[in-house]
Amino acid sequence: MSSSSPPPPPHVLLVSVPLQGHVNPLLVLGHRLAATGLLVTFSTVPHAGLKFPYPDGASVGVGRGTLRFEHLRGGDLWPPHDARYGGNGTDVIRHLDEAGPAALAGLLARRPPEPAPVSCVVANAFHPWAGRVADGTGVPHAVLWTESCAVLSLLYHHFRGLAEFPPAEAGPGAPVAGVPGMPATMVAADLPGLIHVPEQFVWRRLLVEDLRSLGDTVSWVLVNTFGELERPAFDALRRHLPSVIPVGPLLVGTTAAEEEASHGGEDDDGCMAWLDAQPRGSVVLVAFGSMVKVSRDEMVELAAGLAATGRPFLLVVRDNNREDLDDCLAAAFSGGGGKLVAWCEQARVLSHGAVGCFVTHCGWNSTVEALASGVPVVTYPTWADQPTNAKFLDDVFRVGVRLPRPMARDALRRCVEEVMAGPEAAAMRARAERWKAEASAALAAGGSSERGIREFVDAALSSIAAGDD
What we know:
This protein has helices spanning about 20-35, 90-110, 130-135, 150-160, 200-215, 230-240, 255-265, 270-275, 295-310, 325-335, 345-350, 365-375, 385-395, 410-420, 425-445, 450-469; strands spanning about 10-15, 40-45, 60, 65-70, 120-125, 140-145, 220-225, 245, 285, 315, 340, 355-360, 375-380, 400. It is an alpha/beta fold.
């Protein structure tokens, strides 16, 4: 009697542009997909400015599956050591749009004995070239939307002509009406920035191509959120896009393996030890993400405003945003109440009991991390999806207050005090704690995040089996 080996598990390829806000959630998704028993390959272009601990060819066991790493390379792609990766994110995304297809096609064409051929591709939004390459090889394709479902719904309704939006000349206070699932008080200033930028702007051009493919060549749209947080937006969008699935929150560090993936054992510059020494709920965390550049004038006001609060604060300023700012920063630290770092494990810091307030640019990763940690916020959005996220944090989730632009020290001090000790501070924190509980439930066994991932895996497996018939 002869025995045969079981068939290899389906092989899912994840493709990310090498920007931290894109890599982190896709990498967490990779861990969770592998845990279901799949073989998952993660591909990007690691470079000096990217926190990414895995070398080319590395492989780790995750649950019943395997997560392996194969870097994008070759052709006209900049090599990993190229300094241009650490510059303007727009330049990086434009370069990947030109050089990425050939590199990805080369990866898909490689057919070593192991692993098995790729049977499904998952790529982040804003690089539709990955989908074009997958379609060209007949491989099913999914998109991971790394912004909110509300933003996706607004953009989908706008670019598909499903709702009327105020023109740019109507002004920031023009009401936004007729978009289902959105707050009644939404105005033009709350819309995602890509709606009104010039058509030739590369982020807008790639977004439009992405949106045109949803429901057409894209088989599934995975969203880094949880249904309990954005139920009205999901209900509205599913009328037009049934394949949209919440699979979040995709939080770095939810499991030990994911936490190791987020920093690779790097030193945290003493952040956690410093937080351990602070009173509970006393610290103001200030961080503006991996792409926002703080101007000198803003830094002067920010530093003075933080010093004026009289509260301990943890200020994160990237090395590439520190040039000629040392004198501005010195003013904030003259009283000895703050700590300055170039980087921190933000989700881990936010979950520390000493943190009582988060001054944030409202990128979606930061927004979800704040909600999942139960930390109230001071919102200071700049562009892209950030104004919409700030609107929801302030007026829908009701866990924060808006810091007006431009940055002003007195306004910053007042906003921090309102969140930390004002008349509504206790109510804000209670609402933040409720969202923390909802996020925990979504991430628990049998929660909505696990159900969403299982829904995608089952659908993908069915599609793969149908293709094999």
